[in-house]
UniProtKB/TrEMBL annotation:
Signal peptide bounds: 1-23
Family, as annotated: Belongs to the cystatin family.
Coiled coil: none
UniProt cross-references to SUPFAM superfamilies, sorted A to Z: Cystatin/monellin
Gene Ontology MF terms: cysteine-type endopeptidase inhibitor activity
Cystatin domain residues: 24-134
Matching PROSITE patterns: CYSTATIN
One Gene Ontology cellular component annotation held by this UniProt entry: vesicle
Keyword Disulfide bond: yes
The species this protein was found in: Engystomops pustulosus (Tungara frog)
SMART domains recorded: CY (SM00043)
Pfam families xrefs: Cystatin
Name of this protein: Cystatin domain-containing protein
Family annotation (InterPro entries): Cystatin_dom (IPR000010), Cystatin_sf (IPR046350), Prot_inh_cystat_CS (IPR018073)
């Protein structure tokens, strides 16, 4: 009984130390740099999927990555907050030579995307798990 209590107290103190030192629990989301290549890949995927499912006539493009977090699971979960802008490029004119990257922006949305990237077995794939966007 005393052994179980001592073990319990030890585990609680270790967990408290981890939370104090790292600011998050093991297995939770951690802040990562918005400049990382993997973050840009996740954002590119998320915006492409958003363009497919959103009820807008024009394409959106990422303008600014506000925040990025990752969580290691059986792969990686990314949570990114991104400002995206509605371009002049029409969705239904895929054959047109509209330059999305250099297109002017009319409407800006702030979106939170949750993207899952699988382990590379043999290739990684992405899934857009959640998204929520609000006008800025």
């Amino acid at each position: 009984m005393v052994w179980n209590l001592n073990l319990y107290l030890f585990l609680i103190s270790c967990l408290s130390f981890a939370v104090i030192c790292h600011g998050s629990l093991v297995g939770g989301y951690i802040d990562i740099k918005t400049t990382r290549n993997d973050v840009h890949d996740a954002v590119k995927f998320a915006v492409t999927e958003f363009n497919k499912m959103a009820n807008y006539a024009n394409l959106f493009k990422p303008i600014n990555i506000v925040l990025a977090k990752s969580q290691v699971v059986a792969g990686t979960n990314y949570m990114v907050v991104v400002d995206i802008g509605q371009t002049e490029c029409r969705k239904n004119h895929a054959g047109d030579a509209c330059d999305v990257e250099n297109s002017k922006v009319s409407e800006v949305l702030r979106c939170t995307f949750k993207v899952y990237k699988s382990l590379p077995l043999p290739e990684s794939h992405y899934e857009l798990k959640e998204h929520k966007c609000e006008a800025q």
